Structure formats: structure tokens, C-alpha cells
Amino acid sequence: MPEIWFPHMGIEIEHLSRVAFQIFHFNIYWYGILIGTGVILGVLFAMKEAKRTGQNPENYLDFMLWALVFIIIGARLYYVLFSWEYFSKNPSQIFAIREGGLAIYGGIIAGILTGIVFCKVKKLSFWQMADTIAPSLIFGQALGRWGNFFNREAFGGYTDNFFAMRYQISQVQTNYLTPDILQNTVVANGVEYIQVHPTFLYESLWSLGVLVILLLLRKHKKFHGQIFAVYFFGYALGRVWIEGLRTDQLLIGSVPVSQALSAVLIVASVVLYVYRQKKEKNNIEN
After folding, report:
1. Which residues of 16-41 are buried (b: 16+ CB within 10 A; e: fewer)?
2. Residues with Cβ < 8 Å from 127, sequence gap 6 or more?
3. Cα–Cα distance between 253 and 259 in angstroms, integer?
4. Contact 152, 176 (CB under 8 A)
5. Beta-bridge partners for 194
6. Which of 168, 166, 199, 194 minimizes the C-alpha distance to 181?
7. What string of H, E and C letters represents the secondary structure of the chain?
8. Cα–Cα distance between 63 and 118 in angstroms, integer?
9. CB of 106 within 8 A of CB of 77?
């Protein structure tokens, strides 16, 4: 029987390992490969976009060499802080990032702070750099979500819609299994499956849609900060919906942290858009 199954789409995956290959008995995980690939392709695209807009592409390579370290730290720190009940009892797992557990918003926050400092030191426009990097960010997020697929994590509750996905119940973490999932398991040839929303797929497709909008908009940009604001609005809008489906939410009390943060970012991105638009208009008039 397949390990992963999309019954309504007729897709069956007999075996899907989290490990891509080994180097001297050291496991190299698909999760890390996908994130690394997203970073490399994102940097290359940002450098190409910088050249197109008359900037120095080397600034973006320099920035990523610094930012990558802090982005990983921020993404892991965000995840650990909001999962402290588990990590306080399993401190040895805090640094086990090869197996997953990087929160996108933590990485974004760390990346923005690094960008602000970098631009001040280099005397560059933060908003122009943010616009240049935004398409790379959303592309990396679209690709990186497939790491969750390999890890059999970041899925939603039970569904029987067209995209419904089945995992063998023995291969997922029990703390991700909510009552609605357990009440609707499927047994096929003696193998028990959960049937859930593939939220990693929803977010990946949503992010690709946002990417298309950003690529179309960049050639008609009116002011620095415009692409960045639209990126945040589009991404956060999707996360408000998708985060509500997931069963592995990071919580403060009973409130999903990323869902609440997404709602705040939707409002903040609109404010940023209007502010930067007015700022540019005033600069032109003066």
C-alpha cells in the first residue's frame, strides 16, 4: 500500500523518505535541500532583478551571506519559543533543525531586521532592497513548503475535498492528530490512513499566485516599498485562511500565533502601502 495517497486525484506514492541521501553515514534531508535550493535560486533572481533596476547585484550576495545565518536562527527561535512546553522537556531537540521546525515568520522578522542594519551600514535604500527581494522570498516559501510534505507535517484537519491527502497513521506524529482526524481514518488492505487537508500544497500554490502578481507588478512599480507591501498583504491573506486549517499551530493560549500575526500584517501592509505612496508623492511635489 502507498505511504502517501491522494485518492480523488488518483495519485499514489509508494515510498517517500525524508532522507534524500547520506554522506559518510550523515543523513541529508529533503527539507534542508529544498530550503537550500530556494535560497540559492532566490539570491540569483534578486541579483538579476538588481541588475535590471540599476543596482549593484553584489550587495544582494553580501546581504544574503549575513542574512541567512540570522534568518535560520530567527526561524528556529520563533518555533522553539512558541513550542516551549515541548522543548523545555526535550532541550536536546532545540538544535535538530535538519528534521524540520523552522517558522517562516520568525525567519522573515530576522531577515527584515538584518536588512535594516545592512542598509544603514551600506547606505542603501531599505525599501528598494525589500522590493527587489520580495519575489525571491515568496518563491522560497512556495518551494520550502514541500519540505513539510516530505516530513509529513503541516497538514490540516479531516477533509474529503478534491485535494484530500492520506498519510499512513504510523508515519505521522501523534500530537498532530486531532479528534476529527482520528474519527475519520481510512483502512485499506489492513493499513490505517489519516485523510487531511494538504495545507503545505495550499500554501505553496497560494505563494506561487502571489509571486505571479509581484512579477507583473514590478515592471509597473510607482514607489519603493510597493512590491514589499503587496507581498506581505498577499502572503498574510493566505496564511490567515491556511493557518486556521492546520493542526500543528503554534499557540498563545488558544490563539494561533501565526494566524493572529497574519491578520496584523494584512492591516500593516495596507498602512505601509498608503504611507509609502504618499511619501513618494510628497517627494515628487517637493
Report:
1. eebeeeeeeeeeebbbbebbeebbee
2. 224, 225, 228, 276
3. 13
4. no
5. 167
6. 194
7. CCCEEECCCCEEECCCCCEEEEECCEEEEHHHHHHHHHHHHHHHHHHHHHHHCCCCHHHHHHHHHHHHHHHHHHHHHHHHHCCHHHHCCCHHHCCCHHHCCCCHHHHHHHHHHHHHHHHHHHCCCHHHHHHHHHHHHHHHHHHHCHHHHHHCCCCECECCCCCCEEEEHHHCCHHHCCHHHHCCCEEECCEEEEEECCHHHHHHHHHHHHHHHHHHHHCCCCCCCHHHHHHHHHHHHHHHHHHCCECCCCEECCEEHHHHHHHHHHHHHHHHHHHHHHHHHHHHHC
8. 7
9. yes
Amino acid at 172: V
Would you state the torsion angle of the CA atoms of residues 253, 255, 258, 262, taken in this order, to the nearest 10 degrees? -140
pLDDT digits (tens, 9 = 90+) for 75-86: 899 888 888 877
3-48 per-position pLDDT tens digit: 999 999 999 999 999 999 898 888 888 988 998 899 999 999 999 9
- Length of the chain in terms of residues written: 286
Dihedral sign for Cα atoms in the order 77, 130, 48, 231: positive
